[in-house]
Specification:
mainly alpha, 60% helix
Length: 195
């Protein structure tokens, strides 16, 4: 039986497609859609996928053992990942993402591949930053989370998509303090998931 090149390409693609690729594609889609909701920073899922294809966090799919093992190391690594994403945004999308946009991409990606990937109880997973957006900031303000209503109101005024590195880290620090050692993903009890 004679096989044409199109059939060989399809067979080759089919052999290469595994659960890691499947999770990566889905996670790129969710991260890109979530991070491109800002009025000032719209980009396509294709652009987001190209950025994440090059990012080091792709190596963490189904691999929570490779995550930093404490909050200081995680925060330091997260800043490196953000700067990497910002660099790729300039190279691939011809625009410079803020630390808030880069963080949203990273946090949604890690939420998809680790937290919602069945590793939410892994000891390293508790350091994964939650996705920060206007919905969460508004709910934290209204709940006066950790008795810091003024802080959450100010964070809303800055807007997550405009966060620089310090703005972003201050929000993570306040969430961490208020959660008193609970996993950072648990703050999403305040995120209702829609506007």
């Amino acid at each position: 039986m004679k096989t044409n090149n199109a059939n060989l390409d399809f067979i080759h693609l089919k052999m290469q497609y595994d659960i890691h690729t499947h999770i990566h594609r889905y996670s790129c889609w969710t991260a890109s859609r979530a991070a491109s909701t800002s009025k000032n920073n719209r980009f396509t899922v294709e652009t987001g996928q190209k950025i994440l294809e090059n990012a080091a966090i792709r190596n963490l799919i189904l691999n929570p053992n490779s995550l930093p093992e404490n909050k200081v190391e995680f925060d330091n690594q997260h800043k490196i990942w953000r700067e990497e994403i910002i660099g790729f945004s300039e190279k691939i999308a011809n625009e410079k993402f803020s630390h808030g946009i880069a963080a949203k991409m990273i946090n949604i990606y890690l939420k998809s591949i680790i937290i919602c990937g069945g590793f939410h109880e892994h000891p390293n997973s508790k350091f994964i930053h939650p996705p920060i957006d206007s919905i969460l900031l508004k709910e934290l303000y209204e709940a006066n989370f950790n008795n810091k209503a003024d802080f959450w109101l100010n964070a809303q005024k800055i807007a997550w998509s405009n966060f620089d590195s310090n703005d972003y880290q201050n929000v993570i620090n306040e969430i961490r303090i208020g959660l008193k050692g609970n996993p950072l993903w648990s703050i999403e009890k305040y995120w209702k998931g829609h506007r």
